[in-house]
Write a structure and sequence with these properties.
Blueprint: E1 3-6, H1 13-22, E2 31-34, H2 45-57, E3 61-63, H3 67-76, H4 90-93, H5 98-105, E4 112-113, E5 119-121, H6 132-146, H7 151-158, H8 173-185, E6 189-190, E7 196-197, E8 215-216, E9 229-232, E10 242-243, E11 246-248, E12 258-263, E13 268-273, H9 275-278
Parallel strand pairs: 1-2, 2-3, 5-9, 9-11
Antiparallel strand pairs: 1-12, 4-5, 6-7, 6-8, 10-11, 12-13
Helix pairs in contact: 6-8
Length: 286
């Protein structure tokens, strides 16, 4: 059995199927981890969502929620300001089984832990001041909220926003939940205390003499979760990195890059070139 961690799909269903063929995926023996952003901007968001849902319900796959998956939940709840011309969510929203799909999606976790290895999966990252056990507990707080009967009210009125951008154990209520979601689903750069910076999205320049306050979340020497192998996506400009005990898996398929599967047992990366499949369909935002 092999556990394959697969980077952001974002509606690139045909590319996913090509990648599964490349790795000789065996649904009877292999298990898939999807790092989130299952949907949006690619041409087949509905097909991606249905595929992951089916495998998950069969016990053959796990996923975590990414920012685009939250975006879909918001659109379903009627937040039209989060729907743009570049979205490819309408086939999902118009599907006869949309209620069932969204009921399943909202119950997906923000963090998955491997049952054997010291390995976890999140969409964007884990703040350096959180241990793995703390991160698990914080993720569960959001998961519990999303499973409440009034979950739509939470999405509409309390989910979105960039404040607070600094973690405190004393944070309570929706402010606390908002930081947790932003850390797991949106984070790229932060400071050593986990203060989040959302404007920086470019490729980091990591040097010994770099004295910038904000750094990629995974490079801080004081990171309390560095003893665990952390798999994540979200940061397409970062590319493939297997260092600092982290593995980045979003290699930019949507933008004409590659789609990645990382075999956890063999530590081997598999990729397919998406240039001819995705790049002509979209222009990357500057």
């Amino acid at each position: 059995m092999t556990t394959y961690v697969i980077g952001d799909l974002q509606g690139c269903y045909d590319e996913l199927q090509q990648l599964l063929t490349e790795i000789n995926y065996n649904s009877d023996n292999d298990h898939l981890w999807f790092v989130g952003d299952i949907v949006n901007r690619g041409p087949k968001s509905l097909e991606c969502l249905q595929f992951v849902k089916t495998l998950s319900q069969q016990g053959k796959a796990d996923m975590v929620l990414g920012n685009h998956d939250f975006h879909l939940l918001a659109a379903y709840c009627g937040l039209e300001k989060f729907v743009s011309k570049s979205d490819t969510l309408q086939p999902i929203l118009e599907h006869p089984q949309v209620d069932e799909l969204m009921d399943w999606l909202r119950k997906q976790p923000l963090m998955v832990t491997h049952p054997i290895y010291n390995s976890v999966m999140v969409h964007a990252g884990i703040p350096p001041q959180w241990s793995i056990s703390e991160a698990q507990n914080y993720a569960k707080e959001v998961q519990d909220q999303l499973q409440q009967s009034d979950w739509k009210n939470y999405i509409i009125n309390h989910l979105f926003g960039s404040e607070p951008n600094k973690w405190k154990d004393s944070l309570t209520g929706y402010k606390r939940l908002r930081y947790i979601v932003n850390a797991f689903a949106r984070m790229r750069y932060c400071d050593s205390n986990g203060r989040l910076e959302f404007q920086l999205k470019s490729v980091p320049v990591i040097t010994k003499n770099n004295d910038s306050e904000y750094q990629p979340w995974f490079i801080f020497p004081n990171r309390r979760n560095k003893d665990y192998e952390i798999f994540f996506g979200h940061w397409s400009t970062l590319g493939a990195i297997d260092a600092y005990n982290i593995h980045s898996t979003d290699t930019g398929c949507l933008w004409g890059g590659k789609m990645t599967a990382f075999a956890m047992e063999s530590k081997q990366r598999y990729t397919i070139d998406c240039q001819q499949l995705c790049k002509p369909k979209l222009k990357k935002k500057k």
